[in-house]
Specification:
334 residues, alpha+beta, Trna Endonuclease, Chain: A, domain 1, 2 domains, seven-stranded mixed beta sheet, five-stranded antiparallel beta sheet, 10 helices, tRNA_endonuc-like_dom_sf, DUF4268 domain-containing protein, DUF4268
């Protein structure tokens, strides 16, 4: 038997590869954010700027996630220090909306890793904190490959459970909201475990959750109801004249063949929106024992919608569409 010939894996410090953090690594990372987003399991990161002024200091990189919320990235070669931790906390304290904080360093001291865990467990669920160690790997004479190792990250399931407990004690939530929060928290962990491009990174008490598909105003929306039904749909928020759905419907036969099953084409006359949906009936999203089956079905249909409609929605002519906000609650039309 011929045994395989294997190379020796070499681990290089970041400073050995990039040399200088502010002058080389930060510009390099700003141009390769997809590598970081893959490690963090964040669907998309869009660069907004480097060396961005933030009071008395500057942020190395400011980006946005797929939902338009800020992602603050601070880089550091060598071991972590209190200065960088303090800067990140100071900046987050000035924010009014959701944000993600990413601290990238060659090596995290245990007390700083513990501080990130504490921030994730103690702060609002609107803020996510990541600690990421960066190094490079190579085999023999190969070019070095960047490697991001996430050593601390938010536990959204635990945070959602705490949020539910807090709101339960104050009587703020109806029973349907408890069911929704529990289901979406479970689905969020399921997506993470599957390394899915779809991510849920906040508590949600609505019966729907929207995921970007690559064009503003159009989303993949997953839904659950207490009526024994779950669904996935392509939701066009601003389609009052139904131009979008009718352009897609002209290719209905090919679309449904690619999708693998019949779809429900709803123009929603009198509404600003339209949608193309598929439903699973006889489902009980309040039954935790059924989560696995429902999650499998939901993710499968979400991936089909992305595959079948991802390019098609980018080609739609929506010039006649209304640009005002669609304030219709989808529950009114389910």
């Amino acid at each position: 038997m011929q045994l395989p010939k294997l190379g020796k894996l070499l681990i290089l410090k970041a400073a050995e590869v990039w040399g200088n953090e502010p002058q080389i690594f930060t510009p390099w990372l700003s141009q390769n954010l997809e590598l970081l987003s893959e490690a963090l399991q964040i669907e998309e990161l869009e660069l907004k700027g480097t060396e961005v002024s933030a009071g008395d200091f500057r942020l190395d990189i400011l980006a946005e996630d797929g939902e338009g919320f800020p992602v603050i990235i601070e880089n550091q070669f060598g071991a972590t220090d209190h200065k960088h931790l303090g800067q990140l906390i100071s900046y987050v304290a000035s924010l009014k909306n959701r944000a993600t904080v990413v601290w990238v360093a060659e090596r995290f001291k245990e007390d700083h890793r513990a501080a990130i865990d504490w921030l994730n467990s103690s702060t609002s669920e609107d803020y996510d904190f990541f600690a990421v160690e960066v190094e490079a790997l190579k085999i023999g004479d190969s070019d070095p490959a960047p490697y991001f190792n996430v050593v601390a990250k938010p536990n959204n399931w635990a945070r959602n459970v705490r949020a539910v407990s807090r709101q339960t004690s104050t009587g703020e939530l109806a029973s349907r909201h408890h069911m929704r929060i529990s289901y979406w928290a479970s689905f969020a962990e399921y997506l993470r475990a599957k390394n899915s491009k779809f991510q849920i990174r906040r508590q949600n008490k609505d019966h729907w959750f929207e995921f970007p598909i690559g064009r503003s105003g159009i989303v993949i929306s997953s839904t659950i109801t207490t009526k024994g039904r779950i669904g996935v749909e392509l939701y066009l928020h601003k389609d009052p004249l139904k131009a979008g759905i009718r352009q897609l419907k002209a290719d209905k036969t090919a679309i449904e063949q690619e999708f693998g099953e019949a779809l429900d084409w709803q123009e929603l006359l009198g509404k600003k929106a339209s949608r193309i949906a598929v439903f699973k009936t006889d489902s009980d999203p309040s039954d935790e024992n059924s989560y696995s089956e429902l999650h499998d079905w939901m993710l499968d249909r979400m991936e089909r919608f992305q595959r079948v409609f991802g390019q098609r929605v980018k080609q739609l002519n929506l010039e006649l569409s209304d640009t005002s906000e669609d304030n219709v609650d989808p529950e009114d039309i389910i």
